[in-house]
Every structure is written in C-alpha cells, then in structure tokens.
# Entry
Amino acid sequence: MGQVTSLFARKVVGVAGNAVDADTVLASVGLDVDGLSDPKHMIDDDDYYGMIELMAEQMDITPLPLIVGEAMRPDEYGALGLAWKAAPNLFGSFSRVSRYWRLWTSVTQYELEETDRGVLYVQRREGLRRLGMRISIEATSASGVSLSRQVSPRPFAPIEVTFQHPAPRTIAHHEAYFGCPVHFGADKDAMLFSHQSLSEPNILGDEGITQFLVSHLDQELAQINDTPALHTHTKSEIARALSEGLPKMADIARRFGLSARSFHRRLAEQGLSFQTLTEETRREIATAMLQEERYALSEIAFLTGYSEQSAFNRAFKRWMGVTPATYRKSLR
# Structure
C-alpha cells in the first residue's frame, strides 16, 4: 500500500464545497475538517481513492479533477512548490517533480521523455484502475497544467493529454480545461508539451533561490527511505515479468541483487509470501484490463502469465467468484 500527501484530500473536499459532507468524507481518511493542511502528512492511497468514491455517491465528480487542478497553488507544496516557481523555465519545473516526487507520494512516479513531437511528461501508477484512482490521475495532470499557467509568461497548454482509463460520460470539460485534444484508452497517462513552451523563462525564475531550494530538497529526499515498500516493489517487478510467463522467485530476487533465500527471508519478515504477491498482482492486472473492451480474454490470460485461457478462467473464478466474461458483463 502506498501513500499520498493529505494536501490532495483536503483540496478535493474543499473545492467540492457544499456538494459533499466534508466532515464525513475527511473522517474516512482520518482527517479533521478543521485541521491544518500539512503536505508532509501522508494518508494511504487506497483510503484516498475510497474517499473520492464516497464523494461520487454525493455528487457528479466528472469535472472534479479539473476543478481541483485549477485550485492548486505552488506554495501549497512547501519547498517543492517554491522550487517549481523559482526554476528558470517550465522544463526545470517539471524536472524538479521528476526528481523529488517521493516527497509527496509513494504511488506515482513522474518522468520526462524526449520525443520527436516534444517533451512527454509521464505519470506511472500501479494498481487497479478503480474510480478513485482515475480521478486522482486526472487531477494530477490538471494540477500540472494549472501550476504551469501560474508561472509561464505566456498562455500555456499541452499539445495533447492522454489517459489509460476509459473516458467519462463526457470529455467536454477536459478538452476545455486543457485546451488541447484529450485521449482516453491510451497506452500511458501523459501530457505532451512543446519544447518552446517549456523553454520560456518562468515569471519568478531565480537561479540563486533555486540552488538553495534544491539543496534543501536533496536533504529532505535523503531522509526518505529510497527503497519502496518491499511488497510494492516486488509486485511491480512481477507485473513487468508476467507477459513472459509466470516469474520465478529466484528471477525476481536477482533483480533486487538478492539470493532467492535472502529474498524469501525478507518477505517472511514482513509477513509476505512470493506466491501471494504473485496472485495479487495477477488479479489486479486482470480486473483492470477487463474494464477495457479492447483486450480479449485470451490476451488478458497471456499478459497475466497463463498459457491457457481455461487456467485463467479457473483462477479468476477463484479470486472473484465469477468468470472473467461474467465480471466484464457486470461492469457494463
């Protein structure tokens, strides 16, 4: 289980206003509505997604991630937000995020990729694509655009925005907010920026302040355990290996630079087993892929490490109590 900053939870509830019962919603993640906002106070990601889903029972949350993004301010992110503003240009701002993302989340990794069309800003997040996660991913992209517009000297918009999950009932809100084409059901969650837009000097760019803040952020980052939770890291490696067949514990251990025996001992110390983590990973991937019609059942079976669809069907029924086909039909 990963964690995200409680700042996001408070902001989501705050922009919803009277549309939700703020006391009840925040209490679901252990927060007091009258408490102070502290970006260093972390909450479990599953609880955060559940909180968003609780809000969905009380309001239409289709435009919510965009409203959240629009409301974000750099200063709310502490030293990282100040480093965003003080960076010489937006490329520097996004580079700060790709380096220091661990300061406010352990569930999302941010990367910058050079392409022929421009610079791709990618957010990578593992796990089941439940509603709460979808809204969180959209809000993260919306926040990136909002923060960019607050420091850019010119009107700012991406070239395009992509999300892996299916589209909501309307994407008009998204296209109006981002000011560019927005594609759902894509192969990654990302925003494409032009080189020119990222090279414009930031309004408040200051090299001296930047160096001071970066030094401070490096110290904060050093205080964080750079090794992700063992179970999270293990499941990520299992997920990467599944398309080539069912991974062996020795192979995953080798990726960590450990012997199979040492790896088994470390898992056991945390009450984990390789077999259980493998089953959890296969189930999460399968349930996520079944939400998208473009994946055939045979393809899902293959990508979760089953050589035969019949074996996948039996495993899925053991996990969920129904066959994959029945589960997919229920989602409609």
Observations:
- The radius of gyration is 21 Å.
- The chain is about 55% helix and 10% strand.
